Amino acid sequence: MSEQVAIVGVGWSGFRPKTPNLSYKELMYEAAVRAYADAGIDPRRDVDSFVTVAEDFIEGTSIFDEYVPDQLGAALKPVHTITGDGLHGLATGVMLIRSGIARIVVVEGHSKASNILTPDTITAYAQDPVLNRPLRLNTHFVAGMEMHRYLYESGTTREQCAAVVVKNRRNALRNPLASYGADLSLDEVLFGPPLAWPLGKRELAPTVDGAIVIVLAAQDVAQALREDAIWIRGIGWCNDSPSLESREWGNLPYLQEAAQMAYAQAGLRDPWNEIDLAEVDDTYAYKELQSLEALGVCGYGEAGSLLAAGAFDLDGEFPVNPSGGSLGVGHMLDATGLMRALEAVLQLRGEAGAHQVEGAEVALVQSWRGVPTTSGAVAILTN
Amino acid sequence: MGMRKVAVIGAGMTRFVRRALETPKELSWEAARMALESCELTMDDVDAVCFGTAPDAFDGIHMNGEYASDGAGAWRKPFMRSYVGGGTGVFVPIQGWYHVASGLFDVVLVVAEEKMSSYYPHPQAAFLTIFDHTTERALGPNLLWIFALEMNRYMSTYGLKKEDIARVAVLHKRNAAAHPCALLGDPKITVEDVLNSDVLAWPVQRLDVSPISDGAVAIVLAAEHVAKRLTDKPVWIEGVGWHLDTAYWTNRDLVYPRYVEYAARMAYEMAGIKEPRKEIHIAEPYDPFDYKALHHLEGLQLAPRGRAIELYLDGTAERDGDLPICPSGGLLGVGNPIAAAGLMKIAELFWQLRGEAGERQVPGNPRRGVAQAWGDLMQVGTVVVMGR
């Protein structure tokens, strides 16, 4: 049994708002080929287990896991799907390796968001069919309610939330994988088109297509494969109440618990001082601030002013979303956690190029599965 | 390689019914509560929850796992839903196994729930969306046709007779008569009844097929040190295996489920089983159709290819036979709420190996059993070996 699990290969494809020339299978294949080459492995010979993350309604196919094995080189091998975020997939890979049943595990996630004609209708089908669906709640309206409550309870302002968009989309200008890099002013975000008060349309991360494949290995295998393996020191995940009526709206208790689980494994006590960069949820701009507080990076209601003071900038004290986050790179549905993990790996390898955080040694990665879920996951990676 | 030992310490299940009044959350909680009560635990003792359910299309709920999570007990707990189509019911205990074996958790609640009746007028139509959107869906395929193809291939390759295969349905439905949760138990059913039932898609007839149903099953898994403290009769998960074949099922010879063989070999190797036919005392192969039980017994290496039927013809498969098969009554008798049906087989092995199966108890103090499920496009095999 290997206590320590490492990331030994990463591969990606797409990262564009539309990929009309590629099917999801081709996106997956391209990402997988790159990841296997990066890790120096042969999927048919070396990989013990494959994990993918997907949801049927997003794919437009029931029992979507049927269509996974061929393009990953996984036919007639142990393969299974987790209906979760990419970080849940990563956690599953960690558990498979720690259990001793696998030594090399491949985790895949993808987004073919451009194929989805009615995304809001699909996400509305995630609401409780008896209690909530008859109310015809729009997904972004639910997010707007949460933002409203968060601003009310924490004292955070709309301006501070808008500043998240400005920061992340500026960071994205330095990231060749990002689709939504832009140099916006605060007013352009604040006074842009509305979405669901107090949420503005520019505070919602637009989607992109893409696939990400990550190769995990047990400690001895990882050390034999490469010197610059990236280690998963901690990984945690948690759910709160799925019903809108019986959850907290200003706080994110599931994220607090997921973070505590990951920090305990990593032996991490002081996130602010021990972590060099964070890739956290910014599906909506306010989520970045709310998540940082739940992660214990700062106190409740403090993230907004730290952001305004520049602490979360690329060259700040605690860089947050140096990739540009979902606002800048684009939201990749359930592959989002893997997009963040990919960014962390590149940062920790020193391969992030123009958006490199100097001397990065410890990265925090976090994701949320979106409205109406209370499902969050956290990982701590080191080089 | 020293793997952490994992035991099943509790189990519970709802009745399998044609149309449950309960919501998926409520079904999940009923089964979870019974499983926890069976080992005198509460949700406070549970470290994480694993959940299984088949396509979201049945319920019409996007992210169905997230929706059902609190029903399954995952309030402020680590929660994940795993998914391999029809194989999910025997995969979700494997997911629970690796949660505990990883060392991250000591007590894990595993819940499988299915509510097919929400799909109106008949859940069969949901299966249209499992086919390839470009090459197959346009043809409007129906699952029964596909299995008719497979059954035909199996029968014609080995020269099997319908009246022999019908004995599988007869035995399983008779066994189910002793199961308090069963939907289609019938102590008096005969081969003639099966052969005279409606033809659905030749050679598949109505009584060759398991019924669509609603229901939920839950089990509690624990690490060795916890299991030994909580029970005198832990049932160990000795081996786990799963394999997924190519999506291009039309390129495959349907006569033999190689993916089941590979999954079984993975589980047997972990369990240290060299001669499955001698070392396994109870088998719960997946039996959504009667011929599928035969198919899977061959994949599980419990019978030579084309000869699994002999286990039924010579009485070996009966409850007091040398290798009792589906003493629960299987999917054909207890019912087939897809993910729950697979976990029902795990619960059955748990009760059988502890000697708690009541009227269904297999004589002779069985020590080891195997459960298996299958799914996707005739593509996935999931296998668990349990022993005491």
The helix tally of chain B amounts to 14
Output the radius of gyration of chain A: 19 Å
Q: What does the largest sheet of chain B look like?
A: 9 strands, mixed
Average pLDDT taken over every residue of chain A: 97
What is the H/E order of chain B? Answer: EHEHHEHEHHHEEEHEHHEHHHHEE
Low-confidence stretches of chain B: none
Helix content of chain B: 25-40%
Spatial separation of the terminal alpha carbons of chain B: 21 Å
How would you describe the shape of chain B? globular
Computed structural class of chain B: alpha/beta
Give a verbal description of the structure.
The complex is a heterodimer of chains A (383) and B (388). Chain A has 383 residues and is an alpha/beta fold. Chain A has 16 helices and eleven strands. Chain A has helices at residues 24-39, 43-46, 56-59, 69-72, 86-99, 119-124, 139-154, 158-172, 186-190, 219-225, 253-266, 271-274, 285-294, 303-308, 325-329, 336-349; strands at 5-16, 49-53, 79-82, 104-112, 194-196, 199-200, 209-218, 230-239, 277-279, 362-368, 375-382. In chain A, the strands form two sheets. Chain A has a nine-stranded mixed sheet. In chain A, helix 5 (86-99) crosses helix 16 and helix 8 packs across helix 13 (285-294). The model of chain A has no long low-confidence stretch (mean pLDDT 97). With 388 residues, chain B is α/β, with parallel strands linked by helices. Helices cover 35% and strands 18% of the residues of chain B. Chain B is built from 14 helices and eleven strands. Chain B has a nine-stranded mixed sheet with strand order 3-2-4-7-1-8-11-10-9. In chain B, helix 4 (88-101) packs across helix 14 and helix 6 crosses helix 11. The longest helix of chain B is centred in the last third of the chain and has 17 residues, at 338-354. Chain B is globular and about 55 Å long. The two termini of chain B are 21 Å apart. Strand 3 of chain A pairs antiparallel with strand 3 of chain B, so a sheet runs across the interface.
